[in-house]
Amino acid sequence: MSNDLFINLFVQITNMKQSFLAIVVMTSLVIVSCKKSATTNTNPQYKALTEAVYASGNIFPKNEYKLTANADGFLLKQIAFEGDIVSKNQMLFQLESATQDARLEAANNIFRQSEANFSDNSPILDELESQLRNARTKLANDSINYQRYKELYERNATTRIDYERAELAYQTSKNDVSARRKAWLRTKNQLYVDLQNSKSNFRVNAREDDNYRIKSFMDGKLYEVYKKQGELVRRGEAIALIGDANEVYAQLAIDESDFVKVKVGQEVLIKIDVYKDKVFKARVSKLYPKLNKADQTFRIDAEFTDEQPNAYYGMTIEANIIISQNPRVLTIPKNYLVGSDSVWIEENGDKKKIKIIKGVENLDMVEVKTGLTEKSVLVLGN
């Protein structure tokens, strides 16, 4: 199908902008057909007809998403602007975060102090280790003294009171070493827990701080910014619109009566206002089963198969979804049709009305499946 024929196709679509009725597109020149249908008498002719469904819609970028705020705050800084190409995880906006900055600083100080308390040079652990060493030294002395008095007592060289006093000192030192060791372990474990808690708290505050620095989720183009610097932004409120900078798709709306005719994979011919007479080719990629009750249409998406338009957001388009292609069918001018299924013919000098069975049709021509032949003479009705 040539580009000129595509253009003729959209000449017909322009005349149908106010309705979403199904049309049948004829691949031969419409002008020739109109001239022939203007005569009083005519004969059915075999022509190539293409059945299509009219649709209208817009162009949108793929992977479109709205960038939202995860915290409340005033928009302090805008780093990217409409039309800019942005990369994944690039910071685009910054919110005022004085209170959060203070929380983050406090959490960081506690975390650093916890690290120092649990480090190899921890003053708290050093003090406990020093006390434990002193207790062990005393235990060693008391142990020697106890053994000496024990031997003396066994040789009746000392009194029982002195022996028991030495034994008590030894047991006391032994218990003291055990208690100080337990205290050292208990304190070390507690300092470790404090370190992990402070680290977690710091990470939470650091992540919360990231909420005030709004970044893009993926590479793309910044199409629209909803907030200005200095304005208050609420948590969950949209700040900007971002989409793919290179890939676009057509979002179409068709009349509900035509929805059952459309299937995924069907060819779509698209005319975009800003490109004047240029026609783009696409294919149906997705059907949405929910009816839009406001205008009684269904949504259909189409992917461009050849050249695609520039990624301008929301460009207005008109389209024909090719339902079937008929290389050779018997056709008559539409103005010869009487009602929905009859025509007047001339036969043996007489004029009579007969019924036909229609096939596809467009603005000017109708396919005749049965009831007429090429030799039939059609006449306009009264």
From TrEMBL:
Gene3D superfamilies assigned: 2.40.30.170, 2.40.420.20, 2.40.50.100, Helix hairpin bin (1.10.287.470)
| Annotated ranges, domain YknX-like beta-barrel | 252-320
Under InterPro entries, the record lists: Beta-barrel_YknX
Checking SUPFAM superfamilies in the record gives:
HlyD-like secretion proteins
What name does UniProt use for this protein?
Efflux transporter, RND family, MFP subunit
